[in-house]
Design goal:
It contains 4 helices and no strands. With 83 residues, it is mainly α. Helix 1 crosses helix 3 and helix 2 runs antiparallel to helix 3.
Length: 83
């Protein structure tokens, strides 16, 4: 699946609810998921790590959707002008 397709899927599945929840809550959920990913990296199985990577990607997509930004555009920065 392409990044843009995934971002569009998150909008279809959760966009309305995520916007109603608001960006501060979305950022909080994203941070929580990053913490769960960190724990899975330290102590989890590959399956748990994969699950948490998916959760982080989903919440990151939600935030990008609420900001009306493209994850593809964000990723392209590393193609055209890497830090």
């Amino acid at each position: 699946m392409e990044i843009a397709e995934f971002q569009a899927l998150m909008e279809t599945l959760y966009g309305e609810d995520d916007r109603a929840r608001g960006m501060p809550s979305t950022v909080a959920w994203l941070c929580e998921e990053v913490g769960e990913l960190a724990q899975a990296v330290r102590k989890g199985t590959k399956e748990q790590q994969l699950h948490e990577l998916g959760d982080v990607l989903a919440w990151l997509s939600s935030l990008a959707n609420q900001l009306d930004l493209s994850l593809v555009d964000a990723a392209n920065r590393y193609v055209t002008n890497p830090p």
